[in-house]
Design a protein that fits this description.
Elements lengths: L2 H15 L9 H4 L7 H11 L4 H14 L3 H5 L3 H8 L5 H17 L8 H4 L7 H12 L8 H10 L10 H11 L5 H14 L18 H5 L16 E11 L4 E5 L10 E2 L20 E2 L4 E4 L4 E11 L9 E3 L6 H5 L1
Parallel strand pairs: 1-6
Antiparallel strand pairs: 2-3, 2-7, 4-6, 5-6
Helix pairs in contact: 1-12, 3-4, 3-9, 6-7, 9-12, 10-11, 10-12
Length: 336
């Protein structure tokens, strides 16, 4: 079957089965010439990185209600955006969100560039996001490959090469199927197929519009595709966190450097994270270690923190950070 016939099959399926998403233009409106708002497409795609559609919907509504345009987001206070982002994780995305909004506003007159080549120059926009904006918002025949699309393509062509090294191969195959007609709807259709039918486990091949052309289904390897390289064992890093409390209830917080993990976030003063915990208290005090440890897993390592608490005098002078009044915290914050 030729490529244009394959794209027609999936577009016909999409016309009947497209997911209703707050940032999406329904296919019947797209056929009438309506295009998705580039701001909405960009914002949703940044939010969806490392996050599920179900989790993003409410955040997207909050953001677009409070900041309905890229210009309004560009004018927002950093702290307000960070607070609204809380729960989505990977705060570098939120910082890049602001940087990008401000560049689009100041250097592009509030209008997103229309080509992948221009979009990819903006902060926080990689090849996938650039392709998604170009295709969905500007109906450009850009190749859009996210995790769902990789899975669909790996099964469609029965690609045995393991990820992540197979990304280039899968992208090349995906490019051969991207049509010039309705490329934005096509991109979203393949995403929807991956999210709803061509799932990681137990794909519903019987209702897939590409079932008769899928090589993995023909070979019985659909649940073995895509192949993934074994993940390396994550190292463990150790550190110390310090909670300094004044008699009036104020607590010592410090802001992390803008660059690096958790950049720009307020938190408890702490030591560097390494193979062994190193003491680095923010001020001289009678520190007492709390029982147990705090455990958290990041993308590339596990973190183990011991927590140390001290009551300090009102005139205590920390090396870094500042005391924040108890009234600035929610009651639940202070209870924990």
């Amino acid at each position: 079957m030729r490529e244009n016939q394959l794209s027609s099959l999936i577009l016909d399926w999409y016309d009947e089965n497209a997911r209703q998403l707050p940032w999406r233009v329904p296919p019947y409106e797209g056929k009438q010439g309506k295009r998705a708002d580039p701001y909405f497409v960009w914002l949703s795609e940044v939010m969806l990185q490392q996050t599920t559609v179900a989790a993003v919907k409410s955040y997207f509504r909050v953001f677009t209600t409070r900041w309905p345009s890229v210009q309004s987001l560009a004018a927002a206070q950093d702290a307000d955006v960070m607070a609204a982002w809380a729960g989505l994780g990977y705060y570098a995305r939120a910082r890049n969100l602001l940087k990008c909004a401000r560049i689009v506003t100041s250097q592009h007159q509030g209008k997103f560039p229309e080509t992948v080549e221009e979009l990819i120059q903006l902060p926080g926009i990689g090849p996938y996001t650039a392709g998604a904006i170009a295709a969905i918002a500007f109906d450009s025949p850009a190749t859009v490959v996210d995790g769902n699309v990789e899975r669909v393509i790996a099964r469609m062509f029965d690609i045995a090469s393991p990820l992540p090294s197979a990304k280039r191969i899968l992208s090349d195959y995906a490019a051969t199927l991207t049509p010039n007609e309705r490329p934005g709807d096509y991109a979203q259709a393949v995403m929807d197929i991956g999210a709803t039918i061509c799932s990681v486990k137990s794909p519903q091949c019987g209702i897939c519009p590409w079932r008769h052309e899928c090589k993995a289904r023909a070979n019985g390897t659909q649940e073995k595709r895509p192949v993934k390289s074994p993940k390396p064992k994550k190292p463990i890093r150790y550190g110390m966190a310090y909670v300094a409390r004044r008699a009036d209830g104020a607590l010592l917080l410090e802001r992390r450097p803008d660059a690096g993990l958790l950049g720009g976030m307020l938190g408890w003063p702490g030591s560097d994270w390494g193979d062994v915990p190193l003491e680095n208290p923010p001020l001289a005090a009678n520190w007492t270690q709390v029982g147990g440890e705090v455990r958290h897993t990041f993308t590339h390592f596990h973190l183990r923190l011991s927590v140390h608490i001290a009551d300090v005098e009102h005139g205590a002078n920390p090396q870094s950070g500042e005391f924040v009044a108890a009234s600035e915290f929610r009651p639940s914050d202070l209870q924990h």
